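WP5 quarterly update. Target: DgyrCDS14625. Source organism: Dimorphilus gyrociliatus. Length: 620 aa.
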Amino acid sequence: MKIISIFIGIFIFNVHPSLERDEKLINIASKINGASCIVNSELLNTPEFNYECENALTPIWFENNDWASSCSGSLCNGRIIVISFKKSYNVHEICILQRVTSSDQIVNDVLITFQTSNIQKIYKINLGKTCILLEENVGFDSTAISFMPYNSLPASKNSGFNTIFVYAYSNDTSDIDEEDLINIADIDLGATCESFVSEIGNECHKALSSSSNLYWAPACGIFPQPSCIGSYIEIDFVYPAQPYIYSYANRYDENRYIKTMKLEWSSGFVDIQTDLPQDVFYHYYNYTHYPTIESSVKVTITNTTSNELIGLNYFKVFTKQFNQHIYTIQYDTYVVYSLPQHLHGNFMSIKFRVKGHQSGQSNDCSSFIMTFKNCTSEIFTLKLDIIENGEKSSSIETIEPVFNSINFSESSPLMSCDSWSEFWIIFTNNQIKLGSGMIYDKDTLAILNSAIPLDMREILFKNDKASIMNYVQILDKEGRKIYLNNYPQCDVQYDINGLDKSIPTCTVIKARMTHFEYKLTNGKGKRLFDKDSNLVIIFKRDIGIDVKINIYITYQIKFNEIVENRICQPEKSSSKGQYLVHNFSCQDIEDVETNLVSVKILIDNFDEINQLFFCEIFFQ
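Structure tokens (predicted):
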């Protein structure tokens, strides 16, 4: 192994005391936050599964059971679940996770009724998870919401939902901010696998599907493989990440079970699970090698109750979902995304991405509109691929304080139904810049000189055509910017492509002395720390390089005009595998704010500088 010694200094500047706590976005439909439910139908429980409505109030990373009604065909239209909250809230968004069931039992549409106002709206529901924003003044002062499957097909059966999430901003200290997790072993999100020889029709990808009647089964118990011991499935995740929970279930259709199994993670860590329950329930385990980035896991069967008819059903690996939800924009009326409090007063930049939905309509993959609003007025609008007279055009325009606009066009459409299109916007007091890609101020599409106020409070989304559907995801609302100065003596800075919250996107360290500046430009550059807030830095090394890193962090607090220097303490770190993860905690900063983190790196061995990469830095 080659060894690189690295020295890193991190400094935190511009710190101010006595800042009021922000509201937090919480799931008010969670049992943990006091939600309850009633239904007009429940499928009878079986020895293996229950279908009670409380299941819809518990995320899939805690349990796998659904709420399911007893119905078939059009009768499923009348099946309702009503979720009541512990108090009234202004609902911000709703996410619905389909049942873990066969494809003929999923819900295509749902009728949502806000009980307080009796406002109703029908939404299309995708496979997996669907998130929607609400129209203006919808969801205010809500104490209960009902959800009813709608437009059920003749083949529909036992309609219901796995989990319903209802999000609202709250500053109530009794409300618990549960972290969203995402299954990075899900085939619908892009996970792949390979395995020991499988039964025909029960290949390994069946174990990555949420359809409950699918499973992976090794071809064992017959010549030339009389034993199932040693059979394996190797899963490549959607992207490298820190696992938190994993779960498995035996195949459901046979009373043959896995007794022990070995899990070999990409980092090199190995877990042995023994005395596994002999049933078909889903069982959950904590990943214990924090903080370690994993890109795959190999699961090997090491003991069984039988030499045949063994298998795995829906193997899941959950990590924290750092990115915002993907919102389904379904109508030609505005829905509202409210910016959090700490961004009010100075919202200067944003990254987002859009994608069309292919439904067979002639106007698919086009006609997306995004508008920024202050407390009272619409300020600025972006229109992407609007169809007029059979031609697509795009424009940006200011509405307040004066109307001003500019049209721009590209040789190809800006939107697609096959892939995401990323964009960034930078606002100043007298100019708006729009560009494509993930790097601010690069690949500019249009510049509009116009004075606009930066005190934006809401982002509005809609389609220009009623018959289409589009998707949007906000990638950065904090104005996260990293400037990489590989040659400090030249005082040259480069905005890099490492801040997309995608760990594989890394930037090579090109010099023995390297300097990063991590800046949060929105909300007057403020960043609130919570008591349990950590600063996380992730590097990647070439295979075969053993990188040893020494890190210290200092920060300054200005209190009563007196500047105090503090040191952040290193927490757990991991140098296992290709990714290097370092965590830090800083004391006595619960009520402070900062806008700049400076990271200095010194590599002892100049010959190895191109074999170390910077990947991410963030607070969590």
